[in-house]
Amino acid sequence: MPSMAPVNVTQRPRLPEWLKVNLPTSSTFTRTRTLLDDLRLHSVCESARCPNHWECWSRGTATFMIAGDRCTRACGFCAVTTAKPLPLEMDEPSRVAEATRRMGLKHVVITAVARDDLADGGARHFLETIHAVRATNPGIVIEVLTPDFLDNDDALDLVLGAHPDIFNHNLETVRRLTPSVRHRATYDRSLRVLGKARRRGGCGLHTKSGLMLGLGETQEEVLEALRDLRAVACDLLTLGQYLQPTLKHLPVVEFVRPEQFERLRRLGEELGFVRVASGPLVRSSYHADEFSPGGGRAIR
């Protein structure tokens, strides 16, 4: 990928036209906001300052973030607060289940902050949330977007034992940039977690991962990452543009053009990914329902 001149870290760069989005006008957005407040739930849509949460909420979808809104890690790209976490809320799984019922969801994404303060990294809380959602909504497709659990096999097996339909863990960036982008996480550990999930999760489990582009990676480094993901049999992929949440976070090095994302989508499919979402505004959970088993073709 071509590089751009270094970004002045004292101000944000002007967004190109293809990254500008319209604010919502749908009443569904307001209803979703009210519902989350009513049930005292966190959404990664807001906590991570996702540029699509206006659209997703207007569609009546959301990604629920469990285990609190304080993360034990301080990744250079992430807007989620880094602080000492509060104790887990034991009724949170039932509140998430109730939210999926009220929203009439057919596909739900459950993610969490990293909880390195807990022996199991919050894995049992994932399990209990999955069980509660499935009990309330039989037949719903459940996708989990997990931290790496520090490569704890027992923690991973707890989550897989609840039989999610999609196991998502993001590689986030290329090997070279991982130390500066991800706090405590490692490139190879993430690949190991995805590989184990694929092997232990049974033939019906899909594994999914994603990368942010625009942090200074080269095209060959991106292709290496895609090959590494395919080597551990990851079959669902998301590629999106990194956007700097605040001036304290890593700067954007490059705004990758839509045609480059389209080229990477085609290359991903050629490498064997079953579905690829690749575009400037794509995020891990963007249009996640289109990644459901038996769902439509690759989205763009």
Describe the structure.
The strands form two sheets. An eight-stranded mixed β-sheet has the order 1-2-5-6-7-8-9-10. It is built from ten helices and ten strands. The N terminus and C terminus are likely disordered. The chain has one domain: TIM Barrel (Alpha-Beta Barrel), CATH 3.20.20.70. It is 34% helix and 14% strand. The chain is α/β, with parallel strands linked by helices.
Low-confidence stretches: 2-8, 295-300
As for the number of domains, it is 1
Query: What would you say the CATH architecture is?
Result: Alpha-Beta Barrel
> What string, H for helix and E for strand, traces the elements in order?
HEHHEEEHEHEHEHHEHEHE
Major sheet: size, sense and barrel closure? 8 strands, mixed
Number of contiguous helices = 10
- Can you count the beta strands? 10
What is the average of the pLDDT values?
A: 86
Helical content stands at 25-40%
Give the percentage of residues in beta strands. Answer: 5-15%
Outline, from the CA principal axes?
globular
CATH topology tier name = TIM Barrel
CATH hierarchy class name = Alpha Beta
Give a brief outline of the structure.
The protein is an alpha/beta fold and 300 residues long.
Keywords:
two-stranded parallel sheet; alpha/beta; 10 helices; eight-stranded mixed sheet; TIM Barrel; single chain; globular; 10 strands
